[in-house]
Amino acid sequence: MSTTQAVIDRVDKESESYLEELKEYLRIPSISTDPAFKSEVLRCAAFVMDQMRRAGLETRLLEQEDAYPMVYGEWTEAVGKPTILFYGHYDVQPPDPLELWDNPPFEPTVVGDELVARGATDDKGQSFAHLKAVAAILSETGTLPVNVKFIVEGEEESGGAAIEKFVREDKGTLLSADAVFVSDSAMYAPGQPSLVYGLKGLAYMELKVKGPSRDLHSGSFGGAVTNPLNALASIVGSLRDAATGRIAIPGFYDDVVMIEDWERKEFAALDFDEESYRKEIGVPCVFGEEGYSTLERVWARPTCDVNGIFGGYSGQGAKTVLPSWGGAKVSMRLVPNQDPLKIEQLFRDHVIDIAPPGVEVEVQSHHGAAAVLLETEGPIVDAAMSAMEDVWKRPVRVREGGSIPIVSTFAEVLNVPILLLGFGLSDDRLHSPNEKFNISNFYGGIKAVVHFIDRLGSLSTDT
């Protein structure tokens, strides 16, 4: 029996204990965005550190002022062999609205093959699979064929400022590695893994349109002043062409990198049922920028969307009022070569320029991130692709419409392959009630990482 098969057998034998440990992890309400849960977030960091120690790693907390700690662990005794850095986060989204959960969000519940709990797939379950794979190998053999490092942070769901600062200041000293492995995404379909090689960037803006010094009676003042909500509606309506779906901010597309021919061919070859997609999200039709397919729009074309709009009276019944102000939140998902700071300025210039007379517009930037395109070839990528195929199928290459800001930072600072190989599924309801992670995918993820470490062990650092 091969060493790798012996480890896989150990994973099968100890699978129930792995699942119970994951349940214990999920019971900790590590909600980083809510200060009321500070003690629970810190308790979760302690849990992760204890799990790393039990696995056989040397551990420490990486702490910064006014930030939740990052948990670091390493095993670096494989001289002359590659080093893999595993990234994950132990914080979770708030569970609200609680009434929509079938069971308490922090009491993991098994429903068939699904483990339902907040954080099950985003990102406790997926990143815990990395650690259990290393633990299984060390438990079976006492050694590893490669060097491993782990950094698990506690602020991904509240901005990730601490790890961003740390990675840039560290400059690849403590975190030096030959590749970074991230599982915070979904497979393309059940049983069909995907290598995500592109993530969109982000520019998230808020605008406030201010008019009169107080709310006004709409009969006494209607027609005499500019209504801030009317002005806001015209500003928001100017952001996109309603007929073509094109973003109408001057200069917005100047730096956009076009989709490569090979990408369009691979996207078109994927098993994508647009009608099922439409029905699953409950819309009468799909719509977006002219000249591009749905997958191309979501994965590789920039977007501009209103995320919230507010102001005036929204209670029961009628209140005839001209509100003194109105506001909106707008996110723009960016593609490679679009500079978030430049896009923020273009947005700011446009909304101020388009505003009608009689109102004042304030524009605030909340946060941004650059888009990233990652390597899709090379020996380390091949080892990862083959490891996923050992468990499921050969991964398809896809982009992702979301953003993981630390990925672009890893790519920029460490300048090594970033492997975005998720074990989740698109129906895992992350950030929503009844978030889940398929238990079979949890075990499959552990085994895939075992195979990856074995395959990577055949490479030298020169490779």
Low-confidence stretches: none
Tell me the distance between the termini.
28 Å
Count every beta strand, where a strand is a DSSP E run of 2 or more residues: 18
Structural class category: alpha+beta
Percent of residues in β-strands:
15-25%
Description:
The chain has 463 residues and is an alpha+beta fold. It folds into 2 domains: 3-199 and 371-456, Zn peptidases (Aminopeptidase, 3-Layer(aba) Sandwich), CATH 3.40.630; 201-256 and 302-369, 2-Layer Sandwich (Alpha-Beta Plaits), CATH 3.30.70.360. 36% of the residues lie in helices and 21% in strands. It has 14 helices and 18 strands. A 6-stranded mixed β-sheet has the order 1-2-6-3-7-17, with helices on both faces. Strands 11-13-9-14 form a 4-stranded antiparallel β-sheet. Strand 4 and strand 5 (114-116) form a beta hairpin.
Quick overview:
By secondary structure, this protein is α+β, with helices and mostly antiparallel strands.
Q: Descriptors for this entry?
A:
21% strand; Alpha-Beta Plaits; single chain; 463 residues; alpha+beta; Aminopeptidase; 14 helices; 6-stranded mixed β-sheet; 4-stranded antiparallel β-sheet
Could you outline the blueprint of secondary structure elements for this entry?
Elements: H1 3-13, H2 15-26, H3 38-55, E1 58-62, E2 70-75, E3 83-89, E4 109-111, E5 114-116, H4 120-141, E6 147-153, H5 161-170, E7 179-182, E8 194-199, E9 201-210, E10 216-217, H6 218-221, H7 228-237, H8 261-269, H9 274-281, H10 294-300, E11 305-311, E12 321-322, E13 325-334, H11 340-354, E14 360-369, E15 372-373, H12 379-391, E16 396-400, H13 405-414, E17 418-420, E18 436-438, H14 439-456
Parallel strand pairs: 3-6, 3-7, 7-17, 8-16
Antiparallel strand pairs: 1-2, 2-6, 4-5, 5-18, 8-15, 9-13, 9-14, 10-12, 11-13
Helix pairs in contact: 1-4, 1-14, 2-4, 3-4, 4-14, 5-13, 12-14
